[in-house]
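Please check what follows.
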Amino acid sequence: MTGDLESMDRGTDHPEQGGVTVLDAPVEAVAAPAAPPAAEPSRWARALAGYGYRAPRRPVDAERLVPPMPDGPGVTPDRVGPSPLLLRLGFALPDPLWSFLCRWAGWIGPVLVAVFAGVLRFANLGNPNALIFDETYYAKDAYALWHGGYETSWPDDANSLITAPNPSIPFRTDPAYIVHPPVGKWIIGFGEHLYGMNPFGWRFMTAVLGTLSVLMIARIGRRLFRSTLLGCVAGLLLAVDGLHFVMSRAALLDLVVMFWFVAAFGFLLLDRDHSRALLAERLKTTPGGDWLFLGWRPYRLAAAVSLGLMTATKWSGLYALIAFVVLTAAWDASARKLAGSSNWFLWGLWDALFAGAVMGVLTIGVYLASWTGWILSSTAPGKGGYYRDWAASHPGGFGPDWLRSLWHYHATMYDFHTHLTSPHTYQSNPWSWLLLGRPVSFFYESPKNGQAGCQVPECAREVLGIGTPLLWWAGIVALAYCLYRWLMRRDWRAGAILCGLAAGYLPWFGYQQRTIFLFYAVAFVPFLVLAVTMMIGAMIGPATASRDRRTLGAAGAGLLILAVMWNFLYFHPLYTGETIPMDDWRARMWFTSWI
């Protein structure tokens, strides 16, 4: 197995593995103390060894600060010996090719998984030829932003005109009231700008972001678990999650929210490694970890920009900002403690305040910049963005007119979101989300024989927003495992996964009277996938376990992955709007709440 899985069975700060870090500071930045003579194993340890258990080596401080990566330039040697497994199977690759594959496996594997995800998402992307569910808002708002800088109103028959055999676009310039910031719509509109106002055009960018998010989660999983194999498993599981798949093929905002959420997490993970590498470098000359600043943090700034773009798509990004400030400050405090700081807790409070200020200012700046089109629009009544003329008709107050108008607009948006209680057929309570209690039907038709490819008396076509059931139900078990790892074994990786999931999930429990939907959960699906991946790593077992133990563990993990992939293929017709016999559709309605 590529990378080290010993850490899946213990609570240390990183996996144990030879090699050097891919960052600036080498692992030898902190001198390793001489290893004490090995103690005679106890009777209990000898008994456990009979069942395949091997006590892990406790890593030195340098390795805990700067955990080595499993492969890559600077880690994998230029010449790698042939694989014994491939030789046993009768494959003998040329040494240069095998060495190249080993050295670049950390990119080759994730890219291949992302290509697989992209093929799935772009295949027949323009089907169905309709504005499905909330595409009726965001596809048209996106078009208006690219053609006027602000959202406009559309006639009642706009959908039928846009999707007609000879389409026309009834664009108007009078402003429309909207309740979400513009970044997600600007992104959707870029696809329309490239490919036109049609289903492929308005779904193009969500398909791109969905594919890229698979690549990101594969690379994040690799860095988080220090295993290229587990990183690819994480990417594969995300590629075959039904909700992520459906949202990657629909022009809604939540997939965009998820993308920037994952990007921010990935950047903070890079920042964690980068800052600890700098800390290890400093320890060569100055002991202790009591420094005012831990170095230049470009990855943290990139995370703040991502959180700003997330917030400028939907306000739920604010919860992610708070959670990630706490997370990065906790990581800094842990690094200071490992470096020998005597006041690591107080320094951790300083890190939290400093990170909160820097990341907060950047997030707010990006958010305000996203409203530039609205700000620059006309202040004449009915000629610019909605409420752009409010300050002109309400003189007085503090600040420039555009800021006062924008503040008033946001006050009305907040009132809308907190009082949205209109019942909807597909609304659901967040308690039921992990169980997939009430999915959302984005599109449904019942074609008869001879219509839309139907060859039986009655058929069904549906795009159902639901996760791959076996993956989500396995995720419930995986979350319990991560909770155990975090609380009982102090595993920082489990804590990071739970932090991301909590930021994307728990806030919705405060709005249980609001009209909310299961597809909002797509924002935290990547963290659910990482939890399942961590559980799979534990199933496979540590590298020091016996061959029988790892064989059984790998078989169980493989069966779980295959079951998830089968489950995705089984529901695939419901994810893509494929015409299937009505009996086949009913067979996939496992619960009455899914209808």
Residues 1-36 have pLDDT under 50 and may be disordered. The CA atoms of residues 214 and 304 lie 21 Å apart. The radius of gyration is 26 Å. The chain has 23 helices and three strands.
